[in-house]
Specification:
Length: about 400
């Protein structure tokens, strides 16, 4: 069955790595700037002019260059109204492409220019997301971010805020910002507070800096998920450790190409990570700055990596499995998503008259590798009393099952 963009648009999805301040609507930025008397760079009068002024979707020099656009969005996100609106509209945009669960991350540190207190900021965002749930049924949670290029003490304040709002809309803590010259080990006090209070932890790592950044995120931070992890492949031992512990990667394809974390879609490590068995999730990162949606991200993966229906289903399931939600709720939501996905496949099969390939290529690969390994393993026969010994069977002789195909792995 040929995968269409419409199928991807309609399939249930998660978005676990999306920044609030990087996902506003152009029209909202213009309206808020005019209302609040804020001068935007280049004095844009239209959405197209604003998009060009902040290089929406353009390839940047590096991550630091990419982050410059956030100065514009943050300038209009300094009131309760603007924060509520940004959160609600992000939820609305996600729900319209059948995102079922979303984790929105941001740092209250960056929204205090007009004197808003941290709790007021968190409540404004929470109310916007609650309204999106009331209208569209979108489930969501907040991830509070510390900022690498700000002091470790300020990130500790964010960790304290995160603990205070645990089970009140906040589901995790993150360390974001420029990786270079800002190692995760400097923020150990914040990480300790988070872990000691049983709060979920994800850390940006391996995006603009090497695998040692991922190493610090895991071994000094105690991260439960890794934001990006693009350069993890450079350290095979660490890659195996991440794989063995099933630490999920929050993959953001288009963003990684835009920031030059990956030279191109073709050179991105996602297909290698999938074939190796890592738990990968697909995410937008920044809907506005990267000019993308969840449908776009899955569609690009299908186009560049020739994914089949089984691959999409596995990526979808990994997204729900990796969510920072209680296990029992996660189990129910994942089952519902699988049922909806499978019904959608049947619908498309009926419409197209084609049969979907429902076994992920990665699962097929694992099955064939296992079969090959089993074939090379010698058969060990137990030692028997001399009078009971029989001639061992000829292991080189073909058996009835030699021509059977292996069952795809789970």
């Amino acid at each position: 069955m040929k995968i269409t963009r419409d199928f991807i648009h309609r399939m249930p999805k998660t978005d676990l790595h999306v920044h609030l301040d990087g996902s506003m609507r152009l029209s909202t930025i213009l309206e808020l700037a005019e209302k609040e008397g804020i001068a935007l760079p280049g004095n844009p009068q239209s959405e197209d002019e604003l998009a060009r002024a902040i290089n929406i979707g353009a390839i940047c020099e590096d991550l630091t260059d990419y982050l410059k656009a956030f100065d514009v969005t943050l300038s209009v996100m300094q009131t309760e109204e603007s924060l509520y609106r940004a959160a609600f509209e992000l939820g609305e945009d996600a729900a319209r492409e059948n995102v079922k669960y979303m984790e929105v991350r941001y740092s209250p540190l960056l929204h205090t220019r007009n004197g808003l207190s941290y709790p007021v900021i968190v409540e404004a965002v929470a109310e916007g997301l609650r309204e999106a749930k009331r209208r569209y049924g979108l489930m969501s949670g907040q991830i509070i971010c510390g900022i690498r290029h700000m002091t470790p003490e300020s990130s500790l304040r964010m960790a304290e805020l995160c603990v205070a709002f645990k089970n009140r809309g906040v589901v995790g803590f993150d360390l974001a910002g420029a990786e270079a010259d800002n190692p995760a080990k400097d923020y150990r006090e914040a990480f300790y507070l988070i872990r000691n209070n049983n709060v979920n932890l994800t850390i940006h790592a391996g995006e603009a800096y090497g695998p040692e950044s991922v190493h610090q995120a895991i071994h000094m931070g105690g991260a439960h998920r890794i934001g990006h992890g693009t350069r993890l492949r450079e350290d095979g031992d660490l890659l195996n450790f991440v794989n063995d512990l099933r630490i999920p990667l929050e993959v953001c394809l288009t963003s990684n190409v835009q920031t030059r974390a990956a030279k191109s879609f073709e050179s991105h490590p996602l297909p290698f990570y999938m074939s190796y068995g890592l738990r990968c999730t697909i995410n937008t990162d920044n809907r506005l700055i990267t000019d993308t949606t969840m449908t776009d991200e899955y569609w690009r993966a299908v186009q560049h990596y020739d994914l089949n229906i089984g691959d999409l289903r596995k990526l979808m399931i990994d997204g729900f499995k990796s969510a920072f939600m209680p296990y029992r709720k996660k189990r129910t939501v994942t089952a519902q998503a699988c049922a909806e996905f499978d019904a959608l496949v049947r619908d498309f099969e009926t419409t197209s008259g084609e049969k979907a390939i429902t076994d992920p290529r990665v699962a097929q690969e694992i099955a064939f590798q296992k079969a090959s390994a089993d074939a090379r393993t010698p058969t060990i026969y137990p030692i028997q009393p001399e009078d009971q010994r029989a001639e061992a069977p000829d292991t080189d002789a073909p058996s009835e099952t030699d021509t059977e195909q292996p069952t795809p792995a789970e």
